[in-house]
Amino acid sequence: MNTLTLEYINSILPPRPDDSHKMTFGQVLNIAGSIHYRGAAYLSSLSALRVGAGYVTLASSPSVCDSVSAQTPNVVTLPLPPRQAQQAIDIKHINTQSIAPQAVLQLRDKLAQASVISIGSGLSISQSTDQLNRYPNPINGLIVPDGNSEFFYALLTEIQANTHPVIFDADALNFMSHLLHHPTSTAQKPISFTKNSIITPHPKELSRLLNVDVNMIQAQRVHFASLAAKQLNTIVVLKGKHTVISDGEHIFINPTGNSALAKAGTGDVLTGMIAGFCAQGVSPLNAACLGVYLHGLAGELAANELSQYGVLASDLLEYIPKAILRVLNAGH
């Protein structure tokens, strides 16, 4: 077990060669946001750019893409088609802001081109597994009354053989918990986290994934982070005070951060940061270490000027570069 240090973080920062161009630093495909969580799409996209990613594409519903485009010119948007009611039973449940499962076909080229795929920040999946069993669908045998569950299931099926890093956050983790513990059909291929994946659960999300009481998780954070990494074949970033990072073999404890980070949206910033480092060719484990340490350091630097009370998730975007400078200067 190792505690992350300024010197170690400096040693794993990706280089910035003078003869580089935007594609040198990779492409992030960020599948994020929903009608009530547009800010999550903005925060996770911008934070990936703030750590040095060369190109970020946000794939989301048209309204989310429009909202993010209105806030920043830095993110490329890919509006995905909304679901349409296809049968009478579906009409009263349909949410026109939900993404159609057929949108996965539109995403295929982007999924192949991306250096890293980030899924879940503000995506608002939120469906129970019993709903997954209710209605047939021509794409995957499922139809879900509302939310983005149907789209997410189609996306999971599409990326099962993917070898690029994939980051699962927020509601993507809750939906995965349902699939892992309550398979929808024995006839369907089992769904699992993809190779080179990273998950970013808070304790409650990890308790759902492992089907373990959250108090036990909190009492033995290192043990359960490592256990989850082994059982789920993924890299675990267990958020909280002294965030734990584990691939099942190595364990890192993060010393940075404070209560300024205990606000809505800061987790979306972290997810984007990890994705941004993955895009630059950093290994998933090191990308998780970089993202977590610098995220905490940015929170500390922001709190020094704004207080731990006053820091917003959006403020972190301005302090990420300052945190990186702090690390770079420590190496001289």
At a glance:
With 332 residues, the protein is α/β, with parallel strands linked by helices.
Structure description:
There is one protein chain. By secondary structure, the protein is an alpha/beta fold. It has a single domain, classed as UDP-N-acetylmuramoyl-L-alanine:D-glutamate ligase, CATH 3.40.1190.20. Helices cover 47% and strands 11% of the residues. A 10-stranded mixed β-sheet has the order 1-10-9-8-7-6-5-2-3-4, sandwiched between helices. Helix 5 crosses helix 7, helix 12 runs antiparallel to helix 13 and helix 13 crosses helix 14. The protein starts with a strand and ends with a helix. About 8% of the residues have low confidence.
Brief descriptors of the model:
14 helices, 10 strands, 10-stranded mixed sheet, nucleotide-binding, UDP-N-acetylmuramoyl-L-alanine:D-glutamate ligase, 332 residues, alpha/beta, NAD(P)HX epimerase activity, ATP-binding, globular
